[in-house]
Amino acid sequence: MKKIFSTIAAIAIFATLSTAQNRTLPSVDVKTLEGSNININTIENDGNPIVISFWATWCKPCKKELNNIAEVYEDWQDETNVKLIAISIDNARSMAKVAPYVNASDWDYEVYIDPNGDLKRAMGVSTVPHTFLLNSKKEIVWQHKGYVDGDEDELLEQIEKLAK
Amino acid sequence: MKKIAILFTALSFSILGFSQENNGEFHGDFDLSMQSYQEDKLIGAEPADEIILNNAYLNINYTKGNFSAGMRYESYLNALLDFDDDYKGNGIPFRYATYTIDGLEVTVGNYYEQIGSGLIFRSYENKGLGVDNAMDGIRLKYSPAKGVYLKSFIGKNRTYFTYADGIIRGADAEIDLNTALNFESKTKIIIGQGFVSRFQADNNPKFNLPQNVAAYASRLNVINGRWSYSGEYAIKLNDPIGSLTAEGNNYANGNALMSSLSYSKRGFGIIAEMHRVDHMQFRSERAQEKQYIINYIPTLTKQHTYSLLALYPCATQSEGEFGTQIDVFYKIKKGSLLGGKYGTKISFNFSSIRSLQKGIKYDVNGNEVTEISSSFKNDYNDFTPKFFSKNGELFFNDINLEVYKKINKKVKATGVLAKQSYNKDVLEGKTNYGIVNSTIAIADISYKVKKGHTVRVELQELLADGGDGSWSMGLIEYTVSPHWFFAVQDMYNWGNHDIEKQLHYVNINCGFLSGSNRFAIGYGKKRAGIFCVGGVCKEVPSSNGFSLTISSSF
Amino acid sequence: MKNVITLFSFILFITSCDVVEGPYLIDNGGITPVDTSSNTYVKKVLIEDFTGHTCPNCPAAARELEAIHDVYGNQIIGMALHVSGFAEPWTGAGKYEYDFRTEWGTEWDEFFDISNAGLPRGMVNRTGYPNEHRLGKNEWLSAVITELEKEIDFGISITCDVNGNEGTITVNTELINDIVGDYNLVVCLTESHIIDWQKDGQTDNEFYEHNHVLRTVLSDESLSSSSSYTSGDIIAEPIAINLTTLEQYNIDYSANTAINGSVNAGGWNDENMSVIAYIYDNTTQEIVQVEEVYLNE
């Protein structure tokens, strides 16, 4: 029990201290849907907000989140110029299904694949869905674990705060 | 170990003070899972001597410019029953430092790595399944020209809180032909070649064993407009397990072939995949134990999330199997007759896994020892199964159809129909159960009560004769965006041939999410199950009690 | 420079592979077992093979044990303990109806936590306790090689004066060095050449030969009341036995409904039985010496 308490205390300290500065994206390679390598650091949105959402083809809430946002994505873009980047953590078992699934779902997102979890670990993601919001300087200003119907409204609120 | 942690913490605090201006930053994540195990004679749940079991881990990473370092503290006091109980105690089994200079990335300490699809080498972690085979050593990554990626590594492989005996070396080269050779084309080609070898001294007094066992893998990706092909072929040279019996040492080469072809456009996608595996398990030590496995042969079946669809999971038989799988994704347009107002989504999946051609293993006198179904070679045997055998023994069959429709602004519904065949003897290493055939139907309906409040009802039915018989499952989940969720679930084994085992497994779960923190508590009974990952299955005993999970990122 | 580093490591690694050509069997087939016929004591190793008659991969472990015995001779002593669901007897199936389980086998399985990790699994002189003592069949050879190189402090000799059903077994422990420690002596009976069902891979073998099956534990006690021993000391432990009584004990254990026994645990053949005596360190659980003789010698 003591160990657990001290670890919780340690995290609390770190958490409060690290909110003092904003995290940036790590320098990790991911794969495009066509199989090329790209460093996640090089993504750009001309200073507009960026949403990074970790998902997988086998994760129901993840697909629900991305499909629900897809219905209103065009409106979001008109209003805030936000760009949504969907990072799939599908490994070799379901990697081949990512591109066909994305196409069949009619998504307009930028989709990348993180087959061995390198980006997932570098960003501290343990379960999916996990969504991050980046500001104009590509700093992480907000994040959310999990998804239930209606969460996209809170995400939009956060994006609107940045877009002002 | 404790001293190192304290030193690291002190050091990091001081760096933190300086780093505000220099862009150094800390981040990490924390995960805790605790469960209580009470006795429940009905479901056969044993109480744990410790009453509560607990897994926890904390990752801390520091990044500044081109440098990053980090560590992970893991605590198993003692490990949950779904983990191997060789995970005991606390420690810092993962620590690393990475530096990038002029494009050369050097990592020392622990790292994860994958070559191609992982057929010859995959070092990864999946905490939920109790898998972590990190490497400890040195890794180099370099891109000498645009579109050319090289990496090489050397190290020992993690087994619980220690490292296995073998020294693993590997290298990989990947070339994106269009970029590297600088030509514009509608066709995109990527090729890759990987290599891994393991060194372990030969201490066997009776047989000559190779000390350096090598494996090679070549891969090819071709994309042309809507078509995409990806294939990988791997070969592993002689890898006998070091037995003292002649029948135990197999000097045959192993091989694996993975191939997939897909066509997709807006609203439609179809993928056809196959794989053939023959004696292709690669380990960090000769001994044939699951904790040493360092390659990953993905199971060629759909990863199901509905519990009754995943009741009988398939696991890759890395000694020998031939699998095929087809997936079709289709979105019926909105406004059309079948599509309705919002459109309808259809997913179809079919997979079939069979054994390779069977052969006979002979002993020194020419007598039959046993039937084999993968390549085998020793002083008096040399068998290679043919590429495809129509009469291969059935391991697993799955055909399923999922339809999703948004009915109106408040109601969304998903329906699934599936038929599965599961060879319990082969897939679980058991005897006399034969093949369990099951038919499954699922209805999943969600209703929006008001803004932010949603209720979801799931009803599942599994009809089967073999195994445990038939099951029913019901679930009600109420979620309040963005913070709360609450769920009650019951799995009922009404069809069990043994009347005393026709039991209800009731479970209650609720949780709170805020930002990057998630808290969940649950109470109830869990049925005994099987978790399979990368071809290795673990039986998890039934349990009854409380559970608590906390996870947080910072 | 970076080019050179990575390309160099490439070439280095790619050349690191061995391909061994047949014949794979080394010409003189192994090592010469140590001469155990003279009166001097040698280091002996106990391999405990936890198994079950419906465990399809277990016969391979038994064959491995025999193969290690073939190479190293009398220095290797084997014991098969039938435990867990894989050893549960079936009822009314016409096969797998014998109950090979014993009270002590089940206790040791729980204490050392063996069958939870899957069968077959075993221990070699119980080295590596508490975290690394569970060894798969291919890990036994390395453990045996390490054990055989160890020095011995004890020598055990066993004499049996048993006629048919009754008699006395005397276990004499001789000290080779002066040592201090807390040691226990365990004396068991095992039986070999039992012909009964065993699942072997995909086959149901009706006429499988079960060897070294643990039948009973005659004694598991402190070696001596004092914890200091002097070189040359001899500690004698005589044990009176009655095979019918011992057999009935197992039958009664099998009759216990809580363990789903079949009561079918008798039919012992004293001509195929052996006595195994071993000494283990009570603090580390490691077995420091072991000896085996036939009951009817």
Overview of the structural elements:
The complex is a heterotrimer of chains A (164), B (554) and C (297). Chain A has helices spanning 2-18, 60-80, 95-105, 118-122, 151-163, and strands at residues 23-24, 29-32, 37-39, 50-55, 83-88, 110-113, 130-134, 139-145. Chain A is α+β, with helices and mostly antiparallel strands and 164 residues long. Chain A has a single domain (25-163), classed as Glutaredoxin, CATH 3.40.30.10. In chain A, β2 (29-32) and β3 (37-39) form a beta hairpin. The longest helix of chain A is centred in the middle third of the chain and has 21 residues, at 60-80. Chain B is mainly β. Helix content of chain B is 5%, strand content 57%. In chain B, the strands form six sheets. Chain B has a 24-stranded antiparallel beta barrel. In chain B, strands 6-7 form a two-stranded antiparallel sheet. Chain B starts with a helix and ends with a strand. Residues 16-21 of chain B have low confidence and may be disordered. Chain C is an alpha+beta fold and 297 residues long. Chain C has a single domain (41-294), classed as Immunoglobulins (Immunoglobulin-like), CATH 2.60.40.10. Helices cover 20% and strands 34% of the residues of chain C. Chain C contains five helices and 14 strands. Chain C has helices spanning 2-14, 58-72, 103-112, 140-148, 243-255, and strands at residues 45-51, 76-82, 121-124, 154-163, 166-175, 179-180, 183-191, 194-200, 203-210, 213-222, 228-229, 234-242, 273-281, 287-294. In chain C, strands 10-7-13-14 form a four-stranded antiparallel sheet. In chain C, strands 2-1-3 form a three-stranded mixed sheet. In chain C, strands 4-5-12 form a three-stranded antiparallel sheet. In chain C, α2 links the parallel β1 and β2 (76-82).
